[in-house]
Structure formats: structure tokens, C-alpha cells
Amino acid sequence: MYPLKFEPILKERLWGGTKLKEVLGKPSKNDITGESWELSTVKGDVSVVANGKHTGKSLQDLIDINAEALLGKSVVERFGKEFPILIKFIDAKQDLSIQLHPNDELAKERHDSFGKTEMWYIMDADKDANLIVGFNKDVSKKEYSESLKNDTLLDLLNYEQVKEGDTFFINTGKIHAIGAGVLLAEIQQTSDVTYRVFDFNRKDKNGNLRELHTDLALDAIDFEHKDDFKVVYPQNKDRPNDMVDCPYFKTNFIHLTKDMNQDISQRDSFIIYMCVAGKCIVENEFGAVSLQKGETTLVAANSKTIHIKSSGAKLLEVMI
Asked: With 90 as the cut, is the pLDDT of residue 233 above it?
């Protein structure tokens, strides 16, 4: 199976903007596109192949035909025929709501879903743009609940100013938000479960306040102050550099200045390449695909070698 590209699934969001269209070339037709889902098998939002002989088939179709060849035997043993990762690009013109995600146990019990552990790679950020990640001190449930009533939650939160290349790992339970002016790549468990706890009292296009999930969130929040989210990673050129290695995904950073070959015959997992800068060609023994900034490809687990041709590109390499 040759490297696969998929049609982007674009999502209008109250806080979205135009960078997905203007910076990443997505086919948006409005000025509030907040997300481009690059690889998804979330119900109702399943990715469709955009290149080669499999054009028009869904990612789920290909998994159902030969899951082990595409995903890897160990991945199928763990997740069955469910694709375990959701890949997105996100453009925040306005601040996102303050939110968090439940862990696997709560998500399964309440929503029959995976939890949502995720990571962010900052692709572009306006001057003074920031993220909210966690609390700025240990907080009690009582103090947190009172802050919601008194409209003082923002005083308890930790702000992180960001620039291109900054990377963050967001555990389940960690309160967080993407700030205005940030364009990022997101890698997460396959889940669309979010608990929104504060939305700056904004109203949607119909004049309504968006739903909050205050009660559900209370049992899911990690109230401890933890400095465990900023990812420090090597940036050696022309080789994979370890970024994140967690039970749900492994991500490497690759900065190419020349062509690179990889023997992947011992990997029992699919590989995803997200191009976050520059352009390249990703080739296996069955075919090749070109990538530019803002594009993603999926390489099947039964590939033996990967040859990446580039004189200048930055990639996120993702696998299980």
C-alpha cells in the first residue's frame, strides 16, 4: 500500500480564523475554520483517501479490508479495527474555551469512548500568543468551584507564551486552552469528548451561550499544579528525534536538510508524517506522495522502507 493522503475534514468553530486556508492551503470557504481533521475514524467524520487507486475509499474501509497490513498486528491486538489516533491542524483566531478531557476509564463509562491524551506542536504564533496549561498552584475542588461562581477561574490558571517549535503534552484531566493567534498541529487519541468549563461568556451565532460541562468535569480534573507539560526535545538534523513517547502514541521530530532513508521492517505500526514546514516526498516500496506544510500522509505497517526526499522540511513522525 502506497503512502495515503486524505481529504481534509474542515470544522467551523466560533473561535476559528483564516490561517488554515491562507497559511496551510486548506479549501475553506469561510472565515471561521478552526480545525482541519487530517486522519479520523470518528463516527460521522471518517477520512476519505485523496490519492492513487484507493481514492474515494474511507480509512475505515481500508482497515476493514486488511487491518494488520495497514495498522500493524500489535495495534490490531490492542485496538481491534479502530484507528487509535486523531490528527488535526488547529487555528485559533480567538481563545478556545477552558476545557479538559476525561481519562480512558471515565470516557468509556460515560461516553463509550477512548479518553483524550493529546500533544500540540506550535506551527505559528502571533506576538504574545499563549496557551493555558494547568493551574498555577494546587487548587481544591472547593476553591475551583467558587472560582466558577465568582467568575475568577482565569486567576487560577497557568499561562505559557509560545513560539514556533514549542511542544506541549496534555494529560487527561489537565485543564487547558489554546490562545488566540496560535496555529498548531495536534496529535491525540481517537476521541471527541471534551468537558468545557468556561467560555468567556461568549455567545454563538444564534445568540446562545455554549453548553458547559461543569458537573462532568468535576470528577475528571487534576487539581494539582504540575510542571509536566512542556516537551524538551533534541533537534538533530536529518534523523528522527524523540519528542513524546506515551502509551497512546510516539512522536518524533525530523528536520530534513537532505534525503533520508529509514528501514522500518521491524516496526509493527503504521506511521503518520505531518509536514509542519517546507516540503518533501515520502516514498515506500509501493509508491510516493508529495507533502507540503499542512499536509499529512499515512504509511501502512507492512512497508519495509521509507525514503524521504527533501532539501528543507520539518516533519512530525507519529506511530503506536
From this structure: yes
What would the pLDDT profile of 240-263 be if each residue is shown by its tens digit?
999 999 999 999 999 999 999 999
How high is the pLDDT of residue 201? 86
Residue with cell 479538559: 100
Non-local (6+) Cβ contacts of 89 within 8 A are 20, 24, 26, 35, 36, 38, 123, 183, 184, 185, 186, 294
Q: Which of 13, 110, 196, 267 is catalytic?
A: 196
What pLDDT does residue 31 have? 96
Residue 275 has pLDDT above 90, yes or no: yes
For residues 15 and 58, is the Cβ–Cβ distance under 8 A? no
Taking the mean position of all CA atoms in its chain, how far away is CA 60?
Answer: 19
13 as an active site residue: the answer is: no
